[in-house]
Amino acid sequence: MELSLEEQRVYVMRLLDALEVTDRDKRLKVARAILYLAQGVFDECDTEADVLYWSRHNVFLLYDMGIFTALLELLSMEIDNNQACSSAVRKPAISLADSTELRVLLSIMYLMVETIRVETEGDSPERKAAREAFKTELGSPLYNGEPFAPLLFTMVTKFCSMNAPHFPMKKVLLLLWKTILFTLGGFEELQEMKVRMREQLNLSPLPEDSIKVVRQMRAASPPASAMELIEQQQQQKRGRRSRRPLVKQDSLDTYNERDPFKNDDVRDEEDDPEDVDSGIEGEVDPLDRDVIIQPPPPPPLRPPTERVSFPRGLPWAPKVRYILCCFWFTLYVLSFLMLFYSDIDTLVGLPRPIHESVKTLKQVSMETFLCQSESPLLIGQGEEEVEETPAEILYLGMLPSLSQYVIALLKLLLAAAPTSKAKTDSINILADVLPEEMPITVLQSMKLGIDVNRHKEIIVKAISALLLLLLKHFKLNHIYQFEYVAQHLVFANCIPLILKFFNQNIMSYISAKNSICALDFPHCVVHEMPELTAESLEAGDSNQFCWRNLFSCINLLSILNKITKWKHSRTMMLVVFKSAPILKRALKVKQAMMQLYVLKLLKIQTKYLGRQWRKSNMKTMSAIYQKVRHRLNDDWAYGNDIDARPWDFQAEECALRECIEKFNTRRYDKNQNSDFTPVDNCLQSVLGQRVDLPEDFHYSYEMWLEREVFSQPIQWEGLLQAQ
C-alpha cells in the first residue's frame, strides 16, 4: 500500500517471472501471493472498504501486467496433467488437498473477471478501456483458436465423465457463469441489443421493457389451505379484524386492479392498501404476513411515447400468434391485395400486432430459402453474411460438443438438487469442500453441514444462471441456435429434472440459512473472529430469505418456460409428469417474478387438465388472466385446440430437428456440397499440390513407403485392362 505505482509494477513483474519456475511448490507459493494481492492485501487494511478498494486497484494492475494470460497457461497445464487425473481416479476419497493449485488459479481468475466486469462511477478512462479490452479478449477465439468459455466447459465434461474427479466444480461453474455474463452481457445489455437489432431491421420498438414491468408487479397471496380458512373464520366470529378468506376474481392483486374509467382522485381514496385483498385462492395466516418478499422500488415512469398502449388493468401489451398471422396474411392477400398486382407489402387495415408478425413471416421465408439453397442448382444464391458477435463465436466454439456440455451441466444440477439422494454411481460434487480429516466434534460437523449445503446452492445458482443466459442470447442471435440448445435440454430430461427440483418444501428452500456471516469475506479478515457455537450456527443470519435460492428458482422456472413455450409435445410432458400441483405449491413464495413464471407454466397446460381442474382453480385462472400476457385467438382456458393432437407430437420434434440440422449444415459445415465441386483431372496439377504433413511423418517416411507401397503387390496390367 505504501509503494508507488512503478514499484508495484516491478513487484508484480517479479511474481510473473516466478510463475514460470518448474518447482510446483514454489509456483504454488507465488500463485498464493498473487491471490493475496487480488483479495486486496487485507492484512494491511483496517476496514472492509479499504479491502475492496485495494482489491480493485490490484486486479486492474494484475491484468495490465499480463497475469491473466500466464494463469491461463498454468490452468491449461493443470487440465492436461494426466498424472494428477489418474491419481485422483484411483483415490477412494477426494478432498480439498487434491485441488489446491487449481482452486488458487480459479480464485484469481474469478476475482479478475468479476472485478473488471462490474463498472463503478469512479472508474478512469484507462480502466474503462481495460474492461472493453478484457471483454473482447475473453469472447474472442484467442485461446487455442476458441474463446475462454469452451475451455471451462471442457473441464466440466472431464469431471462428469469421471476422468478428472478432483476438479473444483463450484469454482469452475462460477467462473464460467461470470465469463459468459461478461462477454455476452446481462439482461440490461440484452434489452439494449434487442432495441438496437430491431432498429437495424426496421421493426417497431418494443411495447414495454419486460424487466421493468415485472419489477412493478406486486406479489399475490398464495392459495390458502383448509386450516387457514377455518382459522380466519374463527377470528371473524371472535370479532377480530382480518381479511376476507375468499375474494372476487376481479380483485386478486393490487397491481393495476383499478377501473381505468374511474376518476384517479376517487380511486386513490377508495383503494386503501389495508383493505384491498390480493390473494389468489385466499389469504395466508395473519401471523405469516411479515414473510412477504418485497420487490425493489419501481423505477420512475417513462415519458409518454408512440408505442403500443394497453389498458391500465393489464401489465403486458397483447401479441399475435404465428398461426393466426398466417391466416390473416393469406386471407388479406387473396381478398384485398389481388387488386394490386403482386403487392404483399401493404398492411392497410390489419391490426397493429399483426404487422410485426407479417415481418416475422418474411424472415421465416428467407430462412427457408437459405436452407433450400443447399441444392447444387442454387449454390451461391443463398449465401448470408454472418456477423461475428460474441454469441456467434461462442456458439461456434460450443457446437461440436454442445450435447456433452448440456448433459454434464444437468448431471451437476441433479447432483446438487436438494431432492436428490446420494447414490454410489453418482458424481461427487463435494471434492472441493470436504477436508482431509473429517470433523470429530459437533461444532465441526455443523459447520461442515452448512458448508456442504451452501456449496450445493451455489452450484445450482451458477448452472441455472448459465443456462438461462445461453438460451436468451442464442435466441436473440438466431432462433435455431436457441432451439438447438433447448432440444438438447429436452432430450437430456431437463423438464422432469426441474420438476423434481421443485417437488419439495419450496418455502423451506427459499428461507434456508446456510451461511455463516462471521466467515464472509472481507468481514472475516478485518474484524475479530467471534467464537462460533452450536447455538449461533443453528440460529443462522438475520435474513428472512435466501436470495441465492430465490434467484435459482426463478431461473429454473424461466428455463422451463422457454423450452416448453408453444411446443405441444413438451407441454404434454408437463401434464404427464403432473406438474400442476408442484407448480401450485411454488405459488406460496410471494415474489412477483417467480409467481409470473409459475402462472405462465400453468397457463400453457390448462387446456389439458380438464374442466374439473379449471372449475376448482378459478382464482388461479383469474390470476393468469391478470398477470400473463394475452394473445389473440389463444383459447388456453378451453380444451378445444385442434393443434394439440397427440399423434403430431413426435412429428413436431422431428421437423424442428430437421430444420436445425439444415441450419447448422448450411452455416457451419465447410465441406458441404462436396459431391458437386469441380474435380481437377490434370495429373501434373494434382501432383503439384502442396500437402501439409505432420512433423513425425518425415522421420518415418521410408518405413511408410516400404509398408504401404513397396510391400503391396499392384497388378498394373489388370488396372489398365479395367480402364
UniProtKB/TrEMBL annotation:
SMART domains for this protein: DUF3402, N1221
Pfam families the record matches: DUF3402, N1221
Similarity comment: Belongs to the STRIP family.
Domain of life: Eukaryota
Regions of compositional bias (Basic and acidic residues) in chain numbering: 255-265
Name used for this protein in its record: Striatin interacting protein 2
Domain Far11/STRP N-terminal: 1-253
Residue ranges, compositional bias (Pro residues): 294-303
Taxonomic lineage from the root: Eukaryota, Metazoa, Chordata, Craniata, Vertebrata
Compositionally biased residues, Acidic residues: 266-285
A GO cellular component entry from the record: cytosol
Residue segments, region Disordered: 222-306
One biological process term in Gene Ontology: cytoskeleton organization
